[in-house]
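Worked problem 6 (solution included).
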Amino acid sequence: MRSTKVPAKLQKINEADIAKAKVDMGRLGAKDFPFMEAVKACQVMDLIRLRKIWGDTVPLEVQAYRLNDETAIVTLPSEIFVNLGLTIKASSPFKTTLVIELSNESVAYIPTKQAFMEGSYEVTNSRVERGTGEKLVEAAIGLLKELK
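Solution. The predicted structure is:
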């Protein structure tokens, strides 16, 4: 078994974002309040909470377990985009690699760099900066190579 922590920068928010989110939180559940605006308000409020706990950087733990010569398990924090998990599997030195998300700390969604450029619910709801997913992949592959 191997483990490492990847420092993940939280997305930046400013005073205007915070002020708007505080107002918008009072509108949650209103029929005329657009869903994506509600998602953004919740994201900003959660970023405030996370900063109180961690500061600007959250240590996200990646773990790898060798079950035998052909099989390994990787655990990742949060909700990882499938392409990140597929990259780990394709790069693993093990014939079979199981990738498990939502292990340890959770900072909502962790999209790919490409997804950040395209935008989506998951990107709006993400707490970490672009590129965090690829850093987790790199860490996982490194741990798998150590175990082989």
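Discussion: Residues 88 and 137 are 6 Å apart (CA to CA).
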